[in-house]
Inverse folding.
Protein backbone atom coordinates (compact mmCIF):
# COMPACT_ATOMS: atom_id res chain seq x y z
CA UNK A 1 0.00 0.00 0.00
CA UNK A 2 1.30 3.41 -0.96
CA UNK A 3 0.10 6.79 0.24
CA UNK A 4 -0.16 9.41 -2.49
CA UNK A 5 -0.67 13.15 -1.96
CA UNK A 6 -2.51 14.93 -4.79
CA UNK A 7 -2.62 18.69 -5.33
CA UNK A 8 -5.47 19.82 -7.52
CA UNK A 9 -7.43 22.80 -8.78
CA UNK A 10 -11.20 22.89 -9.13
CA UNK A 11 -13.99 25.21 -10.17
CA UNK A 12 -16.53 24.87 -7.36
CA UNK A 13 -19.51 26.03 -9.46
CA UNK A 14 -21.05 22.64 -10.32
CA UNK A 15 -20.30 21.00 -6.97
CA UNK A 16 -22.06 20.80 -3.60
CA UNK A 17 -18.69 21.44 -1.99
CA UNK A 18 -15.61 19.31 -1.58
CA UNK A 19 -16.81 16.70 0.88
CA UNK A 20 -18.93 13.73 -0.14
CA UNK A 21 -22.64 14.19 0.62
CA UNK A 22 -25.84 12.26 0.22
CA UNK A 23 -27.24 14.69 -2.34
CA UNK A 24 -25.60 16.35 -5.30
CA UNK A 25 -22.18 16.01 -6.92
CA UNK A 26 -19.10 16.80 -4.85
CA UNK A 27 -15.43 17.12 -5.68
CA UNK A 28 -14.61 14.15 -3.43
CA UNK A 29 -17.09 11.95 -5.27
CA UNK A 30 -15.69 12.96 -8.67
CA UNK A 31 -12.13 12.31 -7.47
CA UNK A 32 -12.99 8.94 -5.88
CA UNK A 33 -14.82 7.82 -9.03
CA UNK A 34 -11.80 8.72 -11.16
CA UNK A 35 -9.49 6.93 -8.71
CA UNK A 36 -11.72 3.84 -8.86
CA UNK A 37 -11.50 3.79 -12.66
CA UNK A 38 -7.71 3.91 -12.44
CA UNK A 39 -7.13 1.46 -9.57
CA UNK A 40 -10.26 -0.69 -9.29
CA UNK A 41 -10.08 0.09 -5.56
CA UNK A 42 -12.84 1.69 -3.44
CA UNK A 43 -10.77 4.49 -1.97
CA UNK A 44 -11.49 7.27 0.48
CA UNK A 45 -9.93 10.64 -0.26
CA UNK A 46 -8.94 12.69 2.80
CA UNK A 47 -8.35 16.41 2.36
CA UNK A 48 -6.56 19.33 3.99
CA UNK A 49 -9.67 21.52 3.86
CA UNK A 50 -13.40 21.50 3.40
CA UNK A 51 -15.09 23.90 1.03
CA UNK A 52 -18.72 24.91 0.63
CA UNK A 53 -20.77 24.66 -2.54
CA UNK A 54 -19.47 27.15 -5.12
CA UNK A 55 -16.10 27.72 -3.42
CA UNK A 56 -13.05 27.14 -5.65
CA UNK A 57 -9.58 25.72 -5.03
CA UNK A 58 -6.29 26.57 -6.70
CA UNK A 59 -4.33 23.88 -4.88
CA UNK A 60 -6.35 21.59 -2.62
CA UNK A 61 -4.23 18.79 -1.10
CA UNK A 62 -5.67 15.34 -0.44
CA UNK A 63 -4.24 11.90 0.13
CA UNK A 64 -5.27 8.36 -0.66
CA UNK A 65 -3.85 4.88 0.02
CA UNK A 66 -3.52 2.68 -3.06
CA UNK A 67 -2.64 -1.01 -3.39
CA UNK A 68 -2.03 -0.98 -7.14
CA UNK A 69 1.53 -0.35 -8.25
CA UNK A 70 1.61 3.07 -9.94
CA UNK A 71 4.09 5.90 -10.33
CA UNK A 72 2.86 9.33 -9.18
CA UNK A 73 3.05 10.59 -12.77
CA UNK A 74 1.03 7.69 -14.14
CA UNK A 75 -1.59 8.11 -11.39
CA UNK A 76 -1.88 11.86 -12.04
CA UNK A 77 -2.25 11.43 -15.79
CA UNK A 78 -4.82 8.66 -15.47
CA UNK A 79 -6.90 10.49 -12.85
CA UNK A 80 -6.92 13.64 -15.01
CA UNK A 81 -8.09 11.62 -18.00
CA UNK A 82 -10.93 10.04 -16.02
CA UNK A 83 -11.96 13.31 -14.35
CA UNK A 84 -13.11 14.83 -17.65
CA UNK A 85 -15.42 16.68 -18.10
CA UNK A 86 -15.39 17.67 -14.42
CA UNK A 87 -13.63 21.03 -13.91
CA UNK A 88 -10.91 19.48 -11.75
CA UNK A 89 -7.23 19.29 -12.68
CA UNK A 90 -4.52 17.45 -10.74
CA UNK A 91 -1.30 19.46 -11.02
CA UNK A 92 0.92 17.50 -8.68
CA UNK A 93 1.13 13.98 -7.28
CA UNK A 94 3.75 12.41 -5.03
CA UNK A 95 4.34 9.50 -2.68
CA UNK A 96 4.29 10.44 1.01
CA UNK A 97 5.05 8.46 4.16
CA UNK A 98 2.25 6.50 5.80
CA UNK A 99 2.17 8.78 8.83
CA UNK A 100 1.71 11.87 6.69
CA UNK A 101 -1.90 13.14 6.69
CA UNK A 102 -3.31 15.86 4.43
CA UNK A 103 -5.48 17.22 7.23
CA UNK A 104 -3.61 16.47 10.46
CA UNK A 105 -0.11 17.25 9.15
CA UNK A 106 -1.31 20.59 7.76
CA UNK A 107 0.19 23.58 9.58
CA UNK A 108 -1.77 26.29 7.84
CA UNK A 109 -4.35 27.15 5.21
CA UNK A 110 -4.41 30.12 2.86
CA UNK A 111 -7.53 31.54 1.24
CA UNK A 112 -8.11 34.32 -1.30
CA UNK A 113 -11.35 36.25 -1.71
CA UNK A 114 -11.88 38.24 -4.94
CA UNK A 115 -14.22 41.23 -5.19
CA UNK A 116 -14.84 43.05 -8.49
CA UNK A 117 -16.17 46.57 -7.90
CA UNK A 118 -18.27 47.46 -10.94
CA UNK A 119 -21.88 48.00 -11.94
CA UNK A 120 -21.89 45.66 -14.96
CA UNK A 121 -22.48 41.96 -14.34
CA UNK A 122 -19.31 39.89 -14.64
CA UNK A 123 -18.88 38.11 -17.95
CA UNK A 124 -15.30 36.76 -18.04
CA UNK A 125 -15.06 36.38 -14.23
CA UNK A 126 -18.64 35.17 -13.77
CA UNK A 127 -18.84 32.86 -10.73
CA UNK A 128 -15.15 33.61 -10.09
CA UNK A 129 -15.48 36.82 -8.05
CA UNK A 130 -18.09 38.74 -6.03
CA UNK A 131 -19.42 41.62 -8.11
CA UNK A 132 -20.13 44.63 -5.89
CA UNK A 133 -21.73 47.69 -7.56
CA UNK A 134 -19.88 50.22 -5.39
CA UNK A 135 -16.32 51.44 -5.05
CA UNK A 136 -14.92 49.96 -1.88
CA UNK A 137 -12.25 51.75 0.16
CA UNK A 138 -9.54 49.07 0.27
CA UNK A 139 -7.39 51.09 2.68
CA UNK A 140 -10.21 51.34 5.23
CA UNK A 141 -10.87 47.60 4.80
CA UNK A 142 -7.19 46.82 5.35
CA UNK A 143 -7.05 48.91 8.55
CA UNK A 144 -10.27 47.38 9.89
CA UNK A 145 -9.10 43.83 9.04
CA UNK A 146 -6.14 44.09 11.40
CA UNK A 147 -8.52 43.98 14.40
CA UNK A 148 -9.29 40.36 13.46
CA UNK A 149 -5.67 39.20 13.24
CA UNK A 150 -4.46 37.23 16.25
CA UNK A 151 -6.06 34.83 18.71
CA UNK A 152 -9.77 35.53 19.22
CA UNK A 153 -13.13 33.95 19.90
CA UNK A 154 -14.62 34.12 16.38
CA UNK A 155 -18.17 33.14 17.35
CA UNK A 156 -19.58 36.17 15.45
CA UNK A 157 -17.89 34.98 12.26
CA UNK A 158 -18.92 31.34 12.57
CA UNK A 159 -21.75 29.48 10.85
CA UNK A 160 -24.51 28.31 13.17
CA UNK A 161 -23.88 24.77 11.92
CA UNK A 162 -20.11 24.93 12.50
CA UNK A 163 -18.94 21.69 14.12
CA UNK A 164 -15.66 22.92 15.65
CA UNK A 165 -15.46 22.37 19.41
CA UNK A 166 -13.73 25.65 20.10
CA UNK A 167 -14.58 29.05 18.53
CA UNK A 168 -11.14 30.37 19.46
CA UNK A 169 -8.79 30.51 16.48
CA UNK A 170 -5.56 32.29 15.64
CA UNK A 171 -5.77 34.33 12.44
CA UNK A 172 -2.23 34.85 11.13
CA UNK A 173 -3.00 37.17 8.25
CA UNK A 174 -5.91 39.17 6.84
CA UNK A 175 -4.73 41.56 4.15
CA UNK A 176 -6.81 43.62 1.73
CA UNK A 177 -5.23 44.90 -1.46
CA UNK A 178 -6.34 46.61 -4.63
CA UNK A 179 -5.01 44.74 -7.69
CA UNK A 180 -5.05 45.19 -11.45
CA UNK A 181 -6.77 42.00 -12.56
CA UNK A 182 -6.64 40.64 -16.10
CA UNK A 183 -10.33 41.54 -16.55
CA UNK A 184 -10.27 44.79 -14.55
CA UNK A 185 -9.56 46.16 -11.06
CA UNK A 186 -10.25 43.84 -8.13
CA UNK A 187 -9.95 43.80 -4.37
CA UNK A 188 -8.15 40.73 -3.06
CA UNK A 189 -8.45 39.62 0.55
CA UNK A 190 -5.79 37.17 1.73
CA UNK A 191 -6.51 35.09 4.85
CA UNK A 192 -4.15 32.67 6.57
CA UNK A 193 -4.54 30.57 9.72
CA UNK A 194 -3.75 27.12 11.04
CA UNK A 195 -7.46 26.42 10.62
CA UNK A 196 -10.71 28.33 10.14
CA UNK A 197 -14.24 27.99 11.47
CA UNK A 198 -17.05 27.19 9.05
CA UNK A 199 -17.89 30.36 7.04
CA UNK A 200 -15.21 32.34 8.86
CA UNK A 201 -13.51 33.81 5.78
CA UNK A 202 -16.81 34.65 4.06
CA UNK A 203 -18.17 36.22 7.26
CA UNK A 204 -15.07 38.37 7.75
CA UNK A 205 -15.17 39.44 4.08
CA UNK A 206 -18.88 40.31 4.32
CA UNK A 207 -18.22 42.69 7.23
CA UNK A 208 -15.14 44.20 5.57
CA UNK A 209 -17.25 44.92 2.49
CA UNK A 210 -19.63 46.95 4.72
CA UNK A 211 -16.61 48.90 5.98
CA UNK A 212 -15.38 49.41 2.43
CA UNK A 213 -18.65 50.93 1.26
CA UNK A 214 -18.94 53.13 4.38
CA UNK A 215 -21.96 51.37 5.89
CA UNK A 216 -19.86 50.30 8.87
CA UNK A 217 -17.29 52.43 10.69
CA UNK A 218 -13.92 50.67 10.87
CA UNK A 219 -14.27 50.20 14.64
CA UNK A 220 -17.45 48.20 14.21
CA UNK A 221 -15.35 45.18 13.21
CA UNK A 222 -13.98 45.14 16.77
CA UNK A 223 -17.47 45.59 18.23
CA UNK A 224 -18.73 42.67 16.15
CA UNK A 225 -15.80 40.47 17.18
CA UNK A 226 -16.20 41.29 20.86
CA UNK A 227 -19.95 40.61 20.74
CA UNK A 228 -19.20 36.88 20.22
CA UNK A 229 -22.66 36.67 18.76
CA UNK A 230 -23.71 35.63 15.25
CA UNK A 231 -26.38 38.35 15.39
CA UNK A 232 -23.59 40.96 15.33
CA UNK A 233 -22.51 39.76 11.87
CA UNK A 234 -23.05 42.22 9.05
CA UNK A 235 -23.31 39.73 6.21
CA UNK A 236 -21.78 36.61 4.72
CA UNK A 237 -19.98 37.09 1.39
CA UNK A 238 -21.14 34.69 -1.37
CA UNK A 239 -19.14 31.49 -1.94
CA UNK A 240 -18.10 32.07 -5.56
CA UNK A 241 -15.48 34.74 -4.68
CA UNK A 242 -13.61 32.37 -2.37
CA UNK A 243 -10.56 30.24 -3.27
CA UNK A 244 -8.64 27.69 -1.22
CA UNK A 245 -5.12 28.74 -2.25
CA UNK A 246 -2.64 26.59 -0.36
CA UNK A 247 -2.16 24.04 2.41
CA UNK A 248 1.09 24.47 4.33
CA UNK A 249 3.09 21.48 5.65
CA UNK A 250 6.33 21.08 7.61
CA UNK A 251 9.30 21.52 5.31
CA UNK A 252 10.38 18.35 3.58
CA UNK A 253 6.99 16.74 4.15
CA UNK A 254 4.94 16.70 1.01
CA UNK B 1 -31.47 60.60 -32.83
CA UNK B 2 -28.45 60.11 -30.64
CA UNK B 3 -25.39 57.98 -31.31
CA UNK B 4 -24.19 55.98 -28.33
CA UNK B 5 -20.86 54.14 -28.04
CA UNK B 6 -20.90 51.10 -25.76
CA UNK B 7 -17.83 49.34 -24.38
CA UNK B 8 -18.51 45.81 -23.20
CA UNK B 9 -16.96 42.57 -22.06
CA UNK B 10 -18.13 39.15 -23.14
CA UNK B 11 -17.35 35.48 -22.65
CA UNK B 12 -17.36 34.10 -26.19
CA UNK B 13 -18.01 30.49 -25.16
CA UNK B 14 -21.78 30.30 -25.81
CA UNK B 15 -21.75 32.47 -28.94
CA UNK B 16 -21.21 31.85 -32.65
CA UNK B 17 -19.03 34.95 -32.67
CA UNK B 18 -19.81 38.64 -32.43
CA UNK B 19 -21.56 39.26 -35.72
CA UNK B 20 -25.18 38.34 -36.33
CA UNK B 21 -25.61 35.10 -38.31
CA UNK B 22 -28.43 32.98 -39.61
CA UNK B 23 -27.67 30.12 -37.25
CA UNK B 24 -26.79 30.15 -33.57
CA UNK B 25 -26.68 32.87 -30.94
CA UNK B 26 -24.29 35.76 -31.43
CA UNK B 27 -23.20 38.66 -29.24
CA UNK B 28 -24.72 41.14 -31.69
CA UNK B 29 -28.09 39.41 -31.52
CA UNK B 30 -28.06 39.38 -27.70
CA UNK B 31 -27.10 43.06 -27.61
CA UNK B 32 -29.72 44.08 -30.19
CA UNK B 33 -32.43 42.14 -28.34
CA UNK B 34 -31.53 43.89 -25.07
CA UNK B 35 -31.50 47.27 -26.87
CA UNK B 36 -34.93 46.52 -28.34
CA UNK B 37 -36.32 45.78 -24.87
CA UNK B 38 -34.98 49.10 -23.62
CA UNK B 39 -35.90 51.33 -26.59
CA UNK B 40 -38.64 49.54 -28.52
CA UNK B 41 -36.50 50.30 -31.60
CA UNK B 42 -35.15 47.77 -34.13
CA UNK B 43 -31.51 48.82 -33.97
CA UNK B 44 -28.36 47.67 -35.73
CA UNK B 45 -25.22 47.47 -33.66
CA UNK B 46 -21.99 48.27 -35.49
CA UNK B 47 -18.70 47.17 -33.96
CA UNK B 48 -14.99 47.96 -34.02
CA UNK B 49 -14.05 44.31 -34.50
CA UNK B 50 -15.37 40.92 -35.49
CA UNK B 51 -14.65 37.87 -33.41
CA UNK B 52 -14.99 34.17 -34.15
CA UNK B 53 -17.01 31.67 -32.14
CA UNK B 54 -15.42 31.17 -28.75
CA UNK B 55 -13.25 34.32 -28.85
CA UNK B 56 -13.67 36.66 -25.87
CA UNK B 57 -13.65 40.44 -25.49
CA UNK B 58 -12.52 42.55 -22.55
CA UNK B 59 -13.62 45.83 -24.12
CA UNK B 60 -15.40 45.57 -27.46
CA UNK B 61 -16.64 48.95 -28.74
CA UNK B 62 -19.87 49.26 -30.72
CA UNK B 63 -22.24 52.07 -31.57
CA UNK B 64 -25.96 52.39 -32.11
CA UNK B 65 -28.34 55.24 -33.08
CA UNK B 66 -31.32 55.63 -30.75
CA UNK B 67 -34.42 57.83 -31.05
CA UNK B 68 -35.59 57.42 -27.47
CA UNK B 69 -34.40 60.01 -24.98
CA UNK B 70 -31.99 58.26 -22.60
CA UNK B 71 -28.91 59.19 -20.62
CA UNK B 72 -25.84 56.99 -21.24
CA UNK B 73 -26.01 55.75 -17.64
CA UNK B 74 -29.68 54.81 -17.89
CA UNK B 75 -29.07 53.03 -21.22
CA UNK B 76 -26.11 51.07 -19.82
CA UNK B 77 -27.99 49.99 -16.71
CA UNK B 78 -31.08 48.94 -18.65
CA UNK B 79 -29.13 47.04 -21.31
CA UNK B 80 -27.16 45.20 -18.61
CA UNK B 81 -30.40 44.24 -16.87
CA UNK B 82 -31.93 42.88 -20.10
CA UNK B 83 -28.73 41.07 -21.16
CA UNK B 84 -28.97 38.62 -18.26
CA UNK B 85 -28.22 35.73 -18.24
CA UNK B 86 -25.97 36.26 -21.27
CA UNK B 87 -22.30 36.56 -20.24
CA UNK B 88 -22.03 40.13 -21.55
CA UNK B 89 -21.44 43.19 -19.38
CA UNK B 90 -21.51 46.82 -20.57
CA UNK B 91 -18.88 48.75 -18.61
CA UNK B 92 -19.05 52.10 -20.37
CA UNK B 93 -21.56 54.07 -22.42
CA UNK B 94 -21.32 57.57 -23.83
CA UNK B 95 -22.83 59.86 -26.45
CA UNK B 96 -20.63 60.38 -29.53
CA UNK B 97 -20.98 62.64 -32.56
CA UNK B 98 -22.92 61.41 -35.56
CA UNK B 99 -19.82 61.16 -37.72
CA UNK B 100 -18.04 58.92 -35.22
CA UNK B 101 -18.01 55.26 -36.24
CA UNK B 102 -16.89 52.35 -34.06
CA UNK B 103 -15.31 50.59 -37.04
CA UNK B 104 -14.21 53.35 -39.42
CA UNK B 105 -12.94 55.76 -36.74
CA UNK B 106 -10.90 53.00 -35.12
CA UNK B 107 -7.14 53.54 -35.43
CA UNK B 108 -6.00 50.28 -33.92
CA UNK B 109 -7.01 47.01 -32.33
CA UNK B 110 -5.29 45.16 -29.50
CA UNK B 111 -5.59 41.45 -28.85
CA UNK B 112 -4.28 39.15 -26.11
CA UNK B 113 -3.70 35.42 -26.46
CA UNK B 114 -3.32 33.33 -23.29
CA UNK B 115 -1.49 29.99 -23.17
CA UNK B 116 -1.32 27.87 -20.00
CA UNK B 117 1.59 25.40 -20.14
CA UNK B 118 0.62 22.43 -17.99
CA UNK B 119 -0.38 18.81 -18.28
CA UNK B 120 -3.56 18.98 -16.18
CA UNK B 121 -6.74 20.14 -17.88
CA UNK B 122 -7.72 23.70 -16.96
CA UNK B 123 -10.40 23.97 -14.30
CA UNK B 124 -10.53 27.62 -13.22
CA UNK B 125 -9.37 28.96 -16.61
CA UNK B 126 -11.33 26.42 -18.68
CA UNK B 127 -12.30 27.96 -22.05
CA UNK B 128 -10.28 31.06 -21.07
CA UNK B 129 -6.81 29.96 -22.19
CA UNK B 130 -5.16 27.40 -24.48
CA UNK B 131 -3.81 24.52 -22.41
CA UNK B 132 -0.56 23.23 -23.90
CA UNK B 133 1.04 20.16 -22.24
CA UNK B 134 4.61 21.29 -22.85
CA UNK B 135 6.89 24.00 -21.51
CA UNK B 136 7.20 26.63 -24.21
CA UNK B 137 10.32 28.77 -24.58
CA UNK B 138 8.83 32.27 -24.34
CA UNK B 139 12.14 33.94 -25.18
CA UNK B 140 12.45 32.00 -28.45
CA UNK B 141 8.84 32.83 -29.26
CA UNK B 142 9.46 36.53 -28.57
CA UNK B 143 12.53 36.59 -30.84
CA UNK B 144 10.71 34.73 -33.63
CA UNK B 145 7.64 36.99 -33.34
CA UNK B 146 9.63 40.09 -34.27
CA UNK B 147 9.95 38.80 -37.86
CA UNK B 148 6.19 39.37 -38.22
CA UNK B 149 6.17 42.96 -36.96
CA UNK B 150 5.94 45.59 -39.71
CA UNK B 151 4.26 45.78 -43.11
CA UNK B 152 3.93 42.36 -44.76
CA UNK B 153 1.78 40.23 -47.02
CA UNK B 154 0.17 37.97 -44.38
CA UNK B 155 -1.41 35.48 -46.82
CA UNK B 156 0.13 32.55 -44.89
CA UNK B 157 -1.60 33.70 -41.70
CA UNK B 158 -4.98 34.35 -43.27
CA UNK B 159 -8.09 32.20 -43.25
CA UNK B 160 -9.10 30.84 -46.66
CA UNK B 161 -12.48 32.52 -46.18
CA UNK B 162 -10.99 35.92 -45.26
CA UNK B 163 -12.88 38.68 -47.10
CA UNK B 164 -10.24 41.43 -46.92
CA UNK B 165 -9.26 42.79 -50.34
CA UNK B 166 -5.60 43.14 -49.49
CA UNK B 167 -3.46 40.61 -47.55
CA UNK B 168 -0.91 43.33 -46.78
CA UNK B 169 -1.20 44.58 -43.19
CA UNK B 170 1.04 46.47 -40.80
CA UNK B 171 1.56 44.66 -37.52
CA UNK B 172 2.60 47.22 -34.89
CA UNK B 173 3.34 44.87 -32.03
CA UNK B 174 3.69 41.16 -31.34
CA UNK B 175 5.14 40.53 -27.90
CA UNK B 176 5.42 37.27 -26.00
CA UNK B 177 5.82 37.33 -22.23
CA UNK B 178 5.81 34.86 -19.38
CA UNK B 179 3.43 36.01 -16.63
CA UNK B 180 2.41 34.85 -13.17
CA UNK B 181 -1.33 34.36 -13.62
CA UNK B 182 -3.80 34.13 -10.75
CA UNK B 183 -4.28 30.43 -11.50
CA UNK B 184 -0.66 29.66 -12.45
CA UNK B 185 2.03 30.60 -14.95
CA UNK B 186 0.89 31.68 -18.41
CA UNK B 187 2.35 32.89 -21.67
CA UNK B 188 0.69 36.06 -22.95
CA UNK B 189 0.96 37.16 -26.55
CA UNK B 190 0.07 40.79 -27.25
CA UNK B 191 -0.82 41.79 -30.81
CA UNK B 192 -1.59 45.27 -32.07
CA UNK B 193 -2.37 46.59 -35.56
CA UNK B 194 -4.68 49.01 -37.30
CA UNK B 195 -6.56 45.94 -38.50
CA UNK B 196 -6.05 42.20 -38.80
CA UNK B 197 -6.91 39.57 -41.39
CA UNK B 198 -9.36 36.80 -40.49
CA UNK B 199 -7.59 34.27 -38.21
CA UNK B 200 -4.35 36.28 -38.34
CA UNK B 201 -3.71 36.39 -34.59
CA UNK B 202 -4.60 32.74 -34.06
CA UNK B 203 -2.45 31.70 -37.03
CA UNK B 204 0.55 33.68 -35.77
CA UNK B 205 0.10 32.24 -32.27
CA UNK B 206 -0.17 28.69 -33.63
CA UNK B 207 3.20 29.01 -35.40
CA UNK B 208 4.84 30.69 -32.39
CA UNK B 209 3.71 27.75 -30.24
CA UNK B 210 5.58 25.41 -32.61
CA UNK B 211 8.68 27.56 -32.13
CA UNK B 212 8.16 27.55 -28.34
CA UNK B 213 8.09 23.75 -28.16
CA UNK B 214 11.07 23.39 -30.49
CA UNK B 215 9.19 21.84 -33.42
CA UNK B 216 10.00 24.87 -35.57
CA UNK B 217 13.31 26.71 -35.70
CA UNK B 218 12.86 30.43 -35.04
CA UNK B 219 13.74 31.27 -38.66
CA UNK B 220 10.86 29.18 -39.95
CA UNK B 221 8.48 32.01 -39.05
CA UNK B 222 10.18 34.13 -41.72
CA UNK B 223 10.07 31.25 -44.22
CA UNK B 224 6.36 30.81 -43.56
CA UNK B 225 5.69 34.54 -43.94
CA UNK B 226 7.66 34.77 -47.18
CA UNK B 227 5.88 31.74 -48.64
CA UNK B 228 2.64 33.77 -48.83
CA UNK B 229 0.87 30.45 -48.87
CA UNK B 230 -1.67 29.08 -46.38
CA UNK B 231 -0.02 25.64 -46.83
CA UNK B 232 3.07 27.02 -45.06
CA UNK B 233 1.06 27.60 -41.88
CA UNK B 234 2.01 25.41 -38.93
CA UNK B 235 -1.30 25.49 -37.11
CA UNK B 236 -4.12 27.74 -36.01
CA UNK B 237 -4.41 28.29 -32.25
CA UNK B 238 -7.88 27.55 -30.82
CA UNK B 239 -10.31 30.47 -30.36
CA UNK B 240 -10.83 30.25 -26.59
CA UNK B 241 -7.37 31.66 -25.74
CA UNK B 242 -8.03 34.86 -27.70
CA UNK B 243 -9.31 38.18 -26.29
CA UNK B 244 -10.22 41.42 -28.04
CA UNK B 245 -8.61 43.82 -25.56
CA UNK B 246 -9.05 47.34 -26.86
CA UNK B 247 -10.12 49.49 -29.79
CA UNK B 248 -8.05 52.65 -30.17
CA UNK B 249 -9.58 55.95 -31.36
CA UNK B 250 -8.21 59.45 -32.00
CA UNK B 251 -7.76 61.29 -28.71
CA UNK B 252 -10.88 63.09 -27.53
CA UNK B 253 -13.09 60.93 -29.72
CA UNK B 254 -14.95 58.40 -27.68
Amino acid sequence: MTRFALTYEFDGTPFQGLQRQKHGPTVQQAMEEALFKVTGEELTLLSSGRTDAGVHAMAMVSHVDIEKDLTPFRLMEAVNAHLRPNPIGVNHCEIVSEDWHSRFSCLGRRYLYRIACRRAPLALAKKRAWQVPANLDADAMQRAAQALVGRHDFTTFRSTICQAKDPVKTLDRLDVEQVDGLFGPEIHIHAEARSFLHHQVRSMVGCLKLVGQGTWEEARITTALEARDRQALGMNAPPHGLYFVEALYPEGQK
